[in-house]
């Protein structure tokens, strides 16, 4: 590495680090998936830790890393987010060296471009600020690619072994990381490994991964095949959403993360006109990225064949699983292929011969990305986690919550909010004594008990009759005994609702549940939680006087007072 390229890399790392540290302290707190990550990593015993992994379909490595991080530092939100900043920045460095190996150590321009694209990638910036696995997955994937390229240049036992180790780490970090590892290893065997080295590769890579992974096979099998993992709760597959992969990777508009639009057509063209903002900040940068990517793919070399094979096979596998209802098709589940897209786009950009053309598209791409990051309130650094669990705690405090008041939490259990309250104070009493109606405790609104595993597997059939009726004896009985009979004159009831999962009115829920086609095509989660919210509000209105509400992020807090 010469002094000039080192200077460029250092400048890129400074910019990348600043972008990842900007607004790192999120006042809204952690949202559900971040909280689950923290909760699992905070487990006090090995049994509790591994039960948490199995119940939430997660591989263990990131949680062990986060546990060590908390032991060394602290577990406040900002410090926890720093645990994602570090691998996010390290991944940029690794991608620089991976690009050098990709070009057989003769591609400084491609390496600098790759590092820069990773540095300003809104997708990677976002996950570098979130307490989740994805920043670490990006870093480990960059190591897998680095040693895959090293195998192309030098198929030695050392490179086979290190490739094997990083593949194992990827599998132990991302539950579906084995898909990427499988295709990467198979493609290396086809494109990179000479026949005389095939036995060594099989021994040190494939057999090595299998042997090292043996202790974890029961855990991974339990995670992948437990009853609740492949659920009917989330949105049905939509081909149009697959286009968001390109806007998420190459543009600053993170549609699959912000959930701004349901389909690409809604984003691009709605109400008879083109969405100019989306066209400018999502479509134009994505088009430039795709153009450069195609240029990089068309460079006919074996290493491009390897990358393209891994890319296509990984996407098709996840696509088929999504079409079968086994997984939600979103960009973050395909994060292993993001470095491949970026690397090929960086190489393609440098393969264009016209300097004027490169300056033009680079200027447009950089200006649109950085301008959106700085200015937009939905950019990677400015985006509010609207489901942040500190938001309702702040709102309840502002609404004058008193120790004799009651709270009903819908969707999340009360423990989800304990991180942001002082459990020793008198004001914590309503939280401790609150009632929670979540997506797991269906006995609240069914006329029979149902295990959570059954609800995920058979919920659509079992809940349908309940969703079509206005009366619910089970829910009446539980709420009357646990809430309404315990509220005294002058006390208030606060109903904390997550509006992003409960937006259907009761009559719409009943209409959908009465129609076969609509019912099968509507996410069950939204129907169930909308039903619960509306039923609880109706009951509260019959027993108490409505006293207003407060909106905060994705939360809405309804207040009722006992006359």
Provide the fold topology.
Layout: H1 3-21, H2 32-41, H3 46-55, H4 61-72, H5 77-102, H6 108-120, H7 122-128, H8 134-153, H9 157-171, H10 177-191, H11 198-213, H12 217-225, H13 244-250, H14 255-258, H15 264-268, E1 269-270, E2 273-274, H16 276-297, H17 302-323, H18 338-351, H19 355-375, H20 390-398, E3 406-411, H21 429-432, E4 435-438, H22 452-467, H23 473-482, E5 492-498, H24 506-513, H25 516-521, H26 524-543, E6 545-552, E7 555-561
Structural class: alpha/beta
> Rough shape?
elongated
- Number of DSSP helices? 26
The gyration radius over C-alpha positions equals 25 Å
- In spatial order, strands of the major sheet run 4-3-5-7-6
Straight-line distance between termini: 76 Å
- Which range best describes the helical content: under 10%, 10-25%, 25-40%, 40-55%, 55-70% or over 70%? 55-70%
How many extended strands? 7
Describe the model.
This protein has 563 residues and is of the alpha/beta class. It has 26 helices and 7 strands. The strands form 2 sheets. The chain has a 5-stranded mixed beta sheet, with helices on both faces. Strands 1-2 form a two-stranded antiparallel sheet.
Short summary of the structure?
By secondary structure, the chain is α/β, with parallel strands linked by helices. It is built from 26 helices and seven strands. A hairpin with a 2-residue loop joins strand 1 (269-270) and strand 2 (273-274).
């Amino acid at each position: 590495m010469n002094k000039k390229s080192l200077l460029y890399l250092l400048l890129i790392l400074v910019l990348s680090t600043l972008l990842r540290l900007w607004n790192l302290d999120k006042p809204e707190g952690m949202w559900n998936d971040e909280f689950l990550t923290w909760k699992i990593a905070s487990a006090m015993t090995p049994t509790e830790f591994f039960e948490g992994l199995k119940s939430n379909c997660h591989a263990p490595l990131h949680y062990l890393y986060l546990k060590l991080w908390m032991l060394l530092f602290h577990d406040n939100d900002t410090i926890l987010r720093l645990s994602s900043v570090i691998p996010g920045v390290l991944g940029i460095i690794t991608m620089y060296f991976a690009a050098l190996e990709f070009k057989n150590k003769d591609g400084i321009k491609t390496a600098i471009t790759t590092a820069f694209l990773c540095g300003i990638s809104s997708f990677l910036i976002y996950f570098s600020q979130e307490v989740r696995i994805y920043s670490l997955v990006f870093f480990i994937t960059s190591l897998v690619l680095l040693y895959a390229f090293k195998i192309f240049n030098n198929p030695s036992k050392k490179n086979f072994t290190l490739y094997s180790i990083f593949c194992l780490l990827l599998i132990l970090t991302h539950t579906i990381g084995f898909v990427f590892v499988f295709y990467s290893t198979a493609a290396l065997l086809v494109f990179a490994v000479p026949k005389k080295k095939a036995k060594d590769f099989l021994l040190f890579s494939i057999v090595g991964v299998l042997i090292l992974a043996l202790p974890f096979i029961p855990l991974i099998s339990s995670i992948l095949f437990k009853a609740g993992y492949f659920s009917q709760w989330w949105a049905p597959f939509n081909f149009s959403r697959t286009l968001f992969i390109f806007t998420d990777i190459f543009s600053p508009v993170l549609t699959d993360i912000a959930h701004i639009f349901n389909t690409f057509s809604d984003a691009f063209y709605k109400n008879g006109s083109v969405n100019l903002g989306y066209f400018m900040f999502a479509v134009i940068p994505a088009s430039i990225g795709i153009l450069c990517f195609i240029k990089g793919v068309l460079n006919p070399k074996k290493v491009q064949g390897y990358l393209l094979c891994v890319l296509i096979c990984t996407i098709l596998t996840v696509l088929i699983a999504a079409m079968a209802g086994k997984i939600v098709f979103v960009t973050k589940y395909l994060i292993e292929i993001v470095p491949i897209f970026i690397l090929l786009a960086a190489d393609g950009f440098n393969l264009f011969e016209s300097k004027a053309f490169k300056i033009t598209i680079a200027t447009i791409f950089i200006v649109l990305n950085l301008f959106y990051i700085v200015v937009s309130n939905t950019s990677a650094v400015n985006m509010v986690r609207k489901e942040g669990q500190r938001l309702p705690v702040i709102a309840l405090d502002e609404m004058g919550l008193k120790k004799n008041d009651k709270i009903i939490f819908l969707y999340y259990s009360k423990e989800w909010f304990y991180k942001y309250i002082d459990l020793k104070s008198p004001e914590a009493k309503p939280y401790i004594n609150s009632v929670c109606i979540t997506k797991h405790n269906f006995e609240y609104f069914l006329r029979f008990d149902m295990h959570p595993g059954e609800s995920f597997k058979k919920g659509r059939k079992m809940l349908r009759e309940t969703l079509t009726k206005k009366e619910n004896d089970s829910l009446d009985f539980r709420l009357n005994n646990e809430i309404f009979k315990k509220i005294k004159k002058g006390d208030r009831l606060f109903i904390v609702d997550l509006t992003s999962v409960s937006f259907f009115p009761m009559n719409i829920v009943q209409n959908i549940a009465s129609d076969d086609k609509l019912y099968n095509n509507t996410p069950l989660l939204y129907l169930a939680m909308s039903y619960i919210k509306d039923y609880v509000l109706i009951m509260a209105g019959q027993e108490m006087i409505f006293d207003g509400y407060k909106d905060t992020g994705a939360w809405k807090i309804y207040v009722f007072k006992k006359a």
